[in-house]
Amino acid sequence: MSFQNILVETRGRVGLITLNRPKAMNALNDQVVDEMWEALDHFEADEGIGAIVITGNEKAFAAGADIGAMASFSHMDAYKGNYITRNWERVKTCRKPVIAAVAGFALGGGCELAMMCDMIIAADNAKFGQPEIKLGILPGSGGTQRLPRAIGKAKTMDMCLTARLMGAEEAERSGLVARVVPTGKLLDEALAVATEIANFSLPVVMMIKESVNRAFEGSLNEGLLFERRVFHAAFGLDDQKEGMAAFVEKRKPDFKHR
Ligand code: CAA
To answer: How far apart are CA 204 and CA 194, in angstroms?
Structure first.
């Protein structure tokens, strides 16, 4: 794999994708997004990888879609080209868990990318926002849909209608962010969490991701039924036998299917 806009490496059982357009605050264009999805394809197919982290740098996770690249778009250009949003749901369709490690600005498409991940770990300097209204547009990669599911209508309206940025502490309090850590420790913490997940049984991890995502897509009854079916299916796994035997025998489980 050779990439121009991202750095890709493995840290043990974790695949790490680092957005790497620092001069443009990691603004997202079609090339960046295509490269990210290619790296995700690669990590998803790699049996040695159990979890993936997407991060940026200390100043910016990503400051949104590349404004210069789309400034002169007509409706036809935007619609036909499906700018940056083509295959946008790739993080969601990735069956392995994806953690966003966010420092600095996560704005517009950057905030939307973070929200598409399964969990956001934020540095204490992180700032989230959907400031598209200032550009005469609206969020186009899930902001008006995923933000209210995370933080509710009132705060979503506030952020989308006024372009107010939300700091890490408020984001954690509001449910957007799972954990806040000192900026200098962000990557270590995100990798530690990803490693912890990657050492559990991968089929179970995948079942949990699929089940939790169901909560955002259908009725409560359908979600509960899905969860129950998957819960029962887990009893067909060797790893369930190992996990429960290890508990009974007071030892650490040694999961086969990682
Ligand atoms: N697109 C393209 N370039 C961007 C960018 C973006 N979204 N955000 C920042 N940059 C570039 C700047 O143009 C600047 O480049 P030059 O040095 O060549 O001038 C460089 O990054 C540094 O930016 P600033 O000088 O502005 O840095 P700052 O610290 O003063 O401000 C910022 C940082 C608050 C992030 C500010 O750059 C900013 O407001 N950026 C735009 C954020 C935004 O509106 N995002 C939404 C985009 S639309 C979208 O994402 C739609 C969607 O839903 C898919």
So the answer is: 15
Residue type, 99: I
Distance from the Cα of residue 33 to its chain's centroid: 13
CA of 24 to the centre of ligand 1 (A): 7
- Cα→Cα distances 114→47, 53, 99, 198, Å: 24, 11, 8, 20
3-state secondary structure of 144: helix
End-to-end, the C-alpha distance of the chain in Å comes to: 24
The tokens describing 75, both together, are: 């409706």
Q: What is the pTM of this model?
A: 0.96
pLDDT, tens only, 49-96: 999 999 999 999 999 999 999 999 999 999 998 887 888 899 999 999
Output the CA 55–ligand 1 centroid distance in Å. 17
